[in-house]
Amino acid sequence: MRTTITVNGEARTHDLDPRTTLLDYLRETLRLTGAKKGCDHGQCGACTVLVNGLRINACLSLAVAHDGDEVVSIEGLGTPDALHPMQQAFLKHDALQCGYCTPGQICSAVAMLEEVAAGWPSQETADLTAPVLLTPDELRERMSGNICRCSAYPQIVAAIAEAAG
Amino acid sequence: MRPFTYERAASADEAVKAAAATPGARFIAGGTNLLDLMKLDIERPQHLIDVARLPLGAIEPAGGGLRIGGMATNSQVAADPQVRRRYPVLAQAILSGGSPQLRNKASVAGNLLQRTRCAYFYDTSKPCNKRAPGSGCGALEGLNRNAAILGQSHACIATHPSDMAVALVALEAEVETLTPSGEARRFPLAELHRLPGETPHVETHLIPGELITAVVLPPPPAGGQAYRKARDRASYAGGLASVAVAGARLALGMVAHKPWRATQVEQALAAGATPAEAIGEELKDAATAGRNDFKVTLTARLAMAALAQAEGDAA
Ligand SMILES: Cc1cc2nc3c(=O)[nH]c(=O)nc-3n(C[C@H](O)[C@H](O)[C@H](O)COP(=O)(O)OP(=O)(O)OC[C@H]3O[C@@H](n4cnc5c(N)ncnc54)[C@H](O)[C@@H]3O)c2cc1C
Ligand code: SF4
Ligand code: FES
Ligand code: FES
To answer: What is the ipTM metric for this complex?
Structure first.
């Protein structure tokens, strides 16, 4: 199926098998291998990318269903010469070991801060009608969709807290 | 994955027409349950009708309550100011399910219609009456730690995993649909799902090809609300048991093939029983399969905690 998706600011058109997931499209068709395939079943968050500004699991989404959408993957957040502040913070805090979960963590964290700014609640939000504050417990809960097998969690939390300011 | 064709529905009417006219057609919304199962060759649609972008995402006041479009995402519902203020049990239930990424894709309709399941349903090398009717039930004498304790049958002891649906049942929500012939109908959400009986592969009372267009909440009942969920880790984990309280109404999750309205608890409480006595009334009918014996005690304690929390909420 002819499908046009704007990926990292550039409109890309391909003829896709409807079975292609957004993750396989990014990795195999476009060769953007930043987003990782950890579980391929929505259980780990390694494939997290932003679609129209929202974080989703690219492994549980069909590429053809994103015709017309704007997708940002880790490659679109920053470059080696011009890192995104979240990437910078992950480097500074050494927030990774093997690095496999890292692109998903960073994309997720960037979108998470937007959700907080928009006042979205989480299960840690005690008063659902009060303004949302990014406490350490809130930060952990809001990042719980990204598993780190190396358990670099303390550094990940420190990096995100710094980037959040 | 097996090959399939794909179309994006232009309207709800077009969607039900296409579903009625195309053999092996299924609706797809967020895809977080359907695609998961298609990858494992458990679901095998020949045609997908994408309904995610239909204009069915609005959350708006209706008759003193709230109408939530079937295609509103779980994130949108949980963040909605009306839901947070008037139906906190619904926001809490949704926020306890899945992950932020999943909730950003998961729709209200898809969440209700996610498959009732167990580990053997997912393992195509094992018998499962739900996946392959008549093949037997692997869970009866197997790994059944999360199996049903209420309303199960000898054919299937799986549980419905939705958190959202438990809160909606306690809130006495109704479902609005469009039938394959294009008629709108509305019925209590508590009547959407079935118990397994002899046909665990049939999970709802929907007509094949019927589209869920909205969920309608009546005005919130007087009294407090609370949602409590027990699971193996603090977040991003399916529940072992859950309890939703909305005023004098109570529903249990992950203990049956469907979200379970605990009418016996409600009646006992109304008649002056203590919370412990009341929940005991409901659970006196509980039956366990071995590894899930603990769920009876867990559910009782969770219900008492939720009732106490709702009382605090009301104060
Ligand atoms: C790792 C993981 C953890 C999870 N944890 C939880 C949890 O803790 N709690 C919880 O509640 N859920 C949990 N879920 C399930 C998740 O909430 C569901 O997958 C999601 O809600 C399904 O919504 P969807 O829009 O993606 O549905 P889809 O996958 O698109 O569809 C699901 C079903 O609904 C049908 N359908 C979709 N829209 C309509 C419509 N409008 N009318 C009629 N039929 C329709 C489809 O044909 C399909 O049969 C988890 C899922 C994953 C992958
Ligand atoms: S409990 Fe139900 S879903 Fe699980 S194996 Fe038995 S029949 Fe299948
Ligand atoms: S690869 Fe998508 S969630 Fe694990
Ligand atoms: S750094 Fe190895 S999985 Fe997170």
So the answer is: 0.98
